[in-house]
Specification:
Strand content: under 5%
Order of helices and strands: HHHH
Structural class: mainly alpha
Number of helices: 4
Largest sheet: none
């Protein structure tokens, strides 16, 4: 088996560092009330910084795969930030309600229920009589 310049314990540490940074940025964003786009953009920027550092600093291309995953993940985070900029949370709900409306000649239909006496079970009222002597 070829050796790519880093051991498994070093590789695990190289995966833990961006993960811890990712969650710390999320906690700081929640504590100070940053918006979702700023939080996602900050997390994406940290992923890109770690990817560049891994490409430059790790010998023999030992972390190229990890750097590629971090760059792809940062792209997804930038897309999520863009989605929150384009459709704030208030508009998302209205978009969901618009999808439920009928299109064209479609109409809302209600299911018919069987109301025959045999299908509905209603308790028969009983009347107790007492005789006073």
């Amino acid at each position: 088996m070829t050796h790519n310049g880093i051991d498994i314990d070093q590789f695990i540490l190289l995966t833990i560092y961006p993960t811890v940074t990712f969650f710390i940025i999320g906690l700081i964003a929640r504590k100070f009330g940053f918006g979702e786009p700023l939080k996602y953009a900050s997390q994406a920027a940290s992923c890109i910084i770690f990817a560049i550092a891994y490409i430059v600093a790790v010998p023999n291309g030992g972390a190229y795969g990890l750097a590629a995953v971090l760059i792809l993940f940062s792209g997804i985070l930038f897309l999520m930030a863009r989605r929150y900029i384009m459709h704030p949370s208030g508009e998302e709900e209205s978009l969901l309600h618009n999808k439920e409306k009928p299109i064209g000649n479609q109409e809302y239909t209600t299911a018919k229920t069987d109301t025959t006496p045999s299908s509905t079970s209603t308790p028969t009222p009983t009347k107790e009589t007492t005789h006073d002597p």
